[in-house]
Amino acid sequence: NHPLRIAFLLAVVTGMRKGEILGLRWEDVDEEHRVIRVQRQLTGSGQHKRMSAPKTERSRRAIAVGDEVITALRAHRQEQADQKSRRGDRWVESGLVVTTSRGTPVDPRNLLTQFKKQMVVAQLPETTTLHDLRHSHATMLLKNNVNPKIVSERLGHSTITITLDTYSHVLPTMQAEVARITDTLLS
Predict the structure, then answer these.
(1) Which of 30, 94, 106, 146 is 20 to 30 Å from the Cα of 44, by its Cα?
(2) How far is Cα 88 from Cα 85, in angstroms, rounded to an integer?
(3) CB 23: neighbour CB atoms within 10 A?
(4) Closest Cα partner for 63 from 98, 17, 131?
(5) What is the tens place of the pLDDT at every residue in 121-163?
(6) Longest dimension (CA), the chain
(7) CA distance 95 to 22
(8) Rounded distance, CA 128 to CA 27, Å?
């Protein structure tokens, strides 16, 4: 029930980068077609926060999401509307999905601090980083035989080579699965 849980969820189910999550606007969420469009990222921190283009041109992308994510986003949007109602004219309308309780952009350092605190609460290794959720997303997809090209597109990598080089540790497991399938086909 953490106020930033939607950010943590988006990291693990979309593979989006921290800045992309913090730069996500409601207008980028297409509930009808179940797609999140990565259009910008929040960079910097403190007084130096700013919106900028994504890391690479391929980082501008559409990520398909399932019903569970859409349901979570709808619930989050309602919570945000409730906060806005309680705050009245003290609410700062940013149009962002992930905001502070006042509607302002979340500082990336604060997101990381809150993530670390949640790791302690969940009794998970304190060395776990928010970026590890991105890696977990890619690893889960590859281990479930999702085409590496699709994984690369979801992550916004500039080439599939980056994806394959980064996640080569998953490939031996996939090779063993191919060998099992080949045996089945030949028997």
Answers:
(1) 30
(2) 5
(3) 26
(4) 17
(5) 999 998 999 999 999 999 999 988 899 999 999 999 989 999 9
(6) 71
(7) 11
(8) 31
